[in-house]
Amino acid sequence: MKGAFRGMAAIIKKEFARFFFDRRMLITTLILPGLLIYVVYTLMGSFVTNIAGDGNYSVAVKNMPGSMEPMFAAVEQFEISDADRDDDYYKSQVTEGGLDIYVIFPEDFDEIIAFAGTSGYVAPEVQIYYSSSADGSTAAYSAFAAVLDAYEQAISNVFNVNTGGNYDLSATSAATYILSAIVPMVLIVLLFSGCMAVAPESIAGEKERGTFATMLVTPVKRSHIAIGKIISLSCISLLSGLSSFLGLMLSLPNLMSGVFDGVDLAMFGAADYLMILGVMLSTVLLLVAMISCISALAKSVKEANSYIAPLNIIVVVVSLLSSFLGNPSAPLYLIPIYNSAMIVTDIMALAVSPLNFIIAIASNIVYAALLVFLLTRMFKSERIMFNR
């Protein structure tokens, strides 16, 4: 019995020593997850604030009822102005972003609702024009409608809000807005998953089995080995990504049919799909190069996966940013991964800029080339490749 405890204690001691004295495993297992979660939730908090707006919504109101003036005046988040120009002017202001919402009350609103409950009473309609492609406008619409709903609950159901017609003045449809929020993150995650499935096994796996050492002593230059691996792994990962992307795009009309009628892929032309293919190819090259460099540092596939795990979180978070940050400047398209997600967002929103597309593709290829050069240098290092 005593010998068994000694054996278990020795194994436990050995495993603890392997873990706690390995700085890389200590950092990736204990420090990075908590740090990344803190950073993610901190960033998400600020982005949610951006989505909801800064709390000050510009509102133009036509025929504001006297009974509602004190109520809306008490709500500090609304900056309300009287609409003294024609409807088209204020609608164009909402579309162009100069105004969050435009509200039209029927004339003599207070007099009409005074007859609520009588025979033949027809509930008046309050019209709220907004733009679903502008986060502040959507938030302003929700906030204004909530105040109206609270007022209506207090006096019973005597009027309606946006019961007929199209009040969304967005330059792009709500369908493309939602597509631009869903597709980029899903696509980048699918590409990363495809790269994760093949790259660690190809480098760290061969190191673990000892076959990589045999490859390095062949007459083939190590730079050629690095380039060959990147190209082959990129092709395999791209095929995996294309298969997943095809399934995603074909399923989107079914997914969104319950929300929007008539959503199909006809809104995207051949040029859009070619641009998405270019983004996928350049992104796969970059991701494979990244994962290959990380895998070259590991002794086994398991260790490589532990090193790559934080990168997975970073990829998800960065790809999410494209849905939260609108109208980024051209230099932001130099940021790896984020630029790919942002370009796909632009394509899905039918608002892609050729300059931004070129910047994103070119920067991804340059980053991938630099990482291939780094991988070549790593292959030439006996200490890295033979874990000395």
Q: What's the gist of this structure?
A:
With about 400 residues, the chain is mainly alpha-helical. The chain is built from 14 helices and five strands.
3D structure, described in words:
By secondary structure, this protein is mostly helical. The protein has three domains: 1-52; 53-161, 3-Layer(aba) Sandwich (D-Maltodextrin-Binding Protein, domain 2), CATH 3.40.190; 173-385, no CATH class. The protein contains 14 helices and five strands. The protein has a five-stranded mixed β-sheet, sandwiched between helices. The two termini are 39 Å apart.
What is the spatial order of strands in the main beta sheet?
2-1-3-4-5
Shape field: elongated
Please state the structural category: mainly alpha
How many domains make up the 3D coordinates? 3
User: What is the number of strand segments?
Assistant: 5
Largest sheet report? 5 strands, mixed
The proportion of strand residues reads: 5-15%
Query: What is the number of helical segments per DSSP (H or I, 4+ residues)?
Result: 14
Q: Which stretches of 5+ consecutive residues score pLDDT under 50?
A: 258-262
SSE arrangement, N to C:
HHEHEHEHEHEHHHHHHHH
If you average the pLDDT, what whole number results?
Answer: 77
Rg over CA atoms, rounded to whole Å, is: 29 Å
End-to-end C-alpha gap: 39 Å
Range of helix content: 55-70%
